[in-house]
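Reopening: Pirin still failing for me.
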Amino acid sequence: MKNPVVQTFPLSSPWQTLDPFLFSVYHLDHFPKGNGEMGPDASLLAGRNLGSDFDPSNDWRMYHGQTIPGFPYHPHRGFETITIVNKGYCDHSDSLGAAGRFGEGDVQWMTAGRGVQHSEMFPLLKDDVENPLELFQIWLNLPKAGKFVDPHFKMLWNEDIPIVDEDNATIKVVAGTYKNIEPITPAPDSWAANPENEVAVWNIHVNADSEYVLPKASLSVNRVLYFYDGDEIHIGDKKINPNFGIVLDPSEDVHIKTGSKKAHFMLLQGKPIGEPVAKYGPFVMNTQEEIQKAMEEYRLTQFGGWPWPHADNVHEKDKGRFALYPDGKLVEKS
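Support: Ran it again with your exact input. Result attached.
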């Protein structure tokens, strides 16, 4: 049997990705108890670089927030963000007037399209116990024909996302059909909206001392399995340590044998868009000229401005999970 492992590489921050994905980052932060105002009950003065997003030397990071962890308002154009919050909460606000609080397994899918500003803050809601945050943010590119679509904000609530329980594994199906299990419909202008593109985002958890078979896909896709937590695994005769990415031959089933700990994976898969990519920070276009135009337009218009009172806007502490859409529709969850 052919070994499906094409290449392995150590995981950095952010993770390396293949077309149609642009960027993926994994945060696991052991935030302390809250201080009553949704910030940490701890000093920020002792050796913390508040602008360092991915500093692995700290158990928790404030990112660019000054009092509450997170990313105050910033622009995006030309791609999509898929934000998976397995633990903790994210407060979203944007220039469309949309807002939300999501977490504990929820997923936000946001198409930036022609341009949007948003903030992503991580309120520490618990004052009596610690506030761990486990979060993935995945950037999915848009083809040239979709770079200027209207921005779109969609919530995939945890209780609605398909979870597949197999003998030795649990698979959270964020995007892409898993065997016969259909996902929630993605954002309408997404590269993932066409099933022929075989975009898949699966969070896979495999029990210790067991075997799991990842089903094959078609030859037309790029397929990377990110082994982000656990003990060593074996795929065929190849031993792979945690914190490694695994580029797979999509035409082969992948037989994974786990070690003495439960293994946790993120699978990103999709048909390549196959177009030139020009990137500058939060702008992703096809040419450098388009990047310059995007920057100039943002300077002039702020992509619609900022309708919220603070750059690091957060919602009321006792507010539950909710989504407020640009059209005024409000969805509240328990």
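The chain is about 5% helix and 40% strand. If you still see a failure, please send the error message rather than a screenshot.
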